[in-house]
Amino acid sequence: MNSGQIDYTKKEMPEKVVKLGYGLLAIGFVLVVAAFAFDYTRASFNSLISFMFVFSLGVGSLFLVALEHIAGAYWSVPFRRISELLTALIFVAPVLAIPVLFDLHGLFHWSHVEAVEADTILAGKSSYLNESFFYIRFVVIFVIFILFRIAMVGGSFKQDTTGSVKINKINARLSAAFMPFFAFMLSIMAIDWLMSLEPHWFSTIFGVYYFAGTFLVALSLLTLYVLYLNKEGMLIDGISSDHLYNFGALLFAFVNFWAYIAFSQYMLIWYANMPEETYWFIIRSEHGWEFISLALIVIHFVVPYVMILSQPSKSSKKRLKVVSYWILGAHYYNLYWLVMPTFSKDGPVLGWYELVFPIFTAGLIITTFNFVSKKRNLVAIGDPKLKRGIDFRL
Amino acid sequence: MTNKPIYAVTGLFEKPDEIINAAEKVAYEGYLNYDIHTPYPVHGMDKAMRLPPSTMGYFALVLGLSGAVLALFFMWITTAYEYPLVIGGKPFFSLPALIPITFEVTVLLATCGTVISMLFIFFKMPNNSHPLHDTKFMKQVSSDKFGVCIEAKDKFFDKEKVKSFLLSLGATEVEEIYFDVDDLKNKNKILTPKFSGFLVFVIVLTSAASYATLNIVMYMPPFDWMMTQSRLNAQGTTDFYENHSAMREPVEGSIARGFMPYAFIGQPDSAGKYLENPLEMTEANLAVGKKKFNTYCSPCHDYYGRGESRLKGRFPNPPSLHTDKTRNWPDGRLYHIIT
């Protein structure tokens, strides 16, 4: 138990994964370009879903990193570097948002100045919901996220060679500063890009609703990478089922958290029964959308809940792998449910437009990770807490 | 001491690492009836002791599910079957409203039930005597030491062997624990004067508190019952509002639901312009019109509209309806005047 030195050698990402990433990215890119060429507005809606998905993963990973620093956690130190590398998705996410910015009028009703002037409610909101302020918010939020990302993750990269304890302290302070920004900016992003699709509607819990999904996907992707890299022997020795149990327990907790928030949002609106609030749910409960809505409960809550309910399943590699893939899909489905009713109120749409974007997104995520992990260690070998993190037992 | 049967041999250790190591070794030797006592939970102990996963989870599952079913059944019986009341215009049995309560009852029954079943089934609750009670060993492991206790009923148990085995693991103190036969036979009384006194105290306290809450506090503003709170009756007076009426008047321009006020009050000209006579020219309508005219109009206008009143000068005579001015009025204006 006191072997002292950390035994880690950097290995290259397997050829298979690199090829898979490039393949998905190339196929996805061609199809996405085709989608934009055929129907720009429909493609923009799908691009918006993918953008919010990748954004979830990027900032969710940064949140996981900050959470570890601020709580002084030990068990997650061997995996922190994977989350840190995944935060690079923050740089990539705007790629999916830029095509949407060219079609603001197709997506956001509030961007039509004449329509807003004729509408008392929207005119009242226009000091916030107008195009220039929208762009400013978008840029400022990304700049702040990127600055925090560079500060927190960059320090950790440096620690690999220096191994100084000071960086842990700096990062803990940075994380404390980051948390309120994170809560505020994530809510703003959710309101700007998802809630304002129906500009008359409002829900005060919406930011938390998006956060619940954000945490879940970031954790799921981390779990998948940990399972895969550990199987390939690219992580450090000593990862036990006790570590995996923590992933399972956290996933289980946040599956419940999502259901709790989603239900809170629904029940208050359902109970108060005010027309300006209920119509958002009414759109989602007619013309075939009701099946999508009911399926959301099963897909996002019931299935993952049952899958990792029992204690042994929380540390079972096979089960964790399945449930992580499932949750990634469920979050994408959740975003589809949030976005697409605005595009087609007359019924759910599912065509090749909807299918090509996940391919491109998957390619983007895999390739980004391959790219950033090329020159970096996959374990934070300089962190003084690493040894204790590996020895973690329940 | 020797006439008492032996219960177990215990060994004390100083550090958590040592106790984990000791637990691993004891399990490796094949002992089954042994236990580890620590002042706080030690990570990794389950695995070191080779304990199977706890069956406690199944208790929680069954209790939780029965809590959910029970709560739903109770709410269905009360709100939809026995006392169906419309609340907030929702259906009698409306699931979203019931979910929070179902959730609470599920959690309540699962947690409380699991703790109670742990106490009664796993810890054999009413049994309040154990050979380890009041031993030096128990006092030390509940403050700052870590202890192993290998019971005599284990099939590998041999007093001297176990003793030397524990010493070889690094135990600082090895002790033999004996059954105190008299103590085992002696059932401790539950209703000792001290405990009875405490029970009486609790009963009096809670009764007094409930009595005071229901009979005194609930009549004291602002905690009082809704029925005794000050209120204003409809049509009553108050000094609170400027017009001294307890009721508020509707905002100017409000109209009753499902009612559209007549738009042409006192405006015959615009009525002539915008109003149309909705009645069709049919025999039946003309007959009704004749009857109405004879009943309501003819006393002044006379049966032929010439303005020869039968009221003999009690009112001024109206002008004739046969003038050019009247004949050229549009249908809408006439309809407005007549109705």
Task: Please name the defining characteristics of this protein.
heterodimer, A: 394 residues, mainly alpha, 17 helices, 76% helix, 0% strand, B: 339 residues, alpha+beta, 12 helices, 4 strands, rod-shaped
Instruction: Provide the succession of SSEs of chain B.
Output: EHEHHHHEHEHHHHHH
Strand order of the largest sheet of chain B: 2-3-1-4
User: How far apart lie the N and C ends of chain B?
Assistant: 117 Å
Radius of gyration of chain B: 47 Å
Q: Please tell me what the overall shape of chain A is.
A: globular
Uncertain residue segments of chain B: none
Mean pLDDT of chain A: 85
Radius of gyration of chain A: 21 Å
Count of domains of chain B: 3
Counting DSSP E segments of at least 2 residues, the number of strands of chain A comes to 0
The largest contact between protein chains, plus residue counts on each side, is: A-B, 14 and 15 residues
Q: Looking at the chains present, what oligomeric state does this protein adopt?
A: heterodimer
Enumerate the spans of chain A where pLDDT stays under 50 for 5 or more consecutive residues.
none
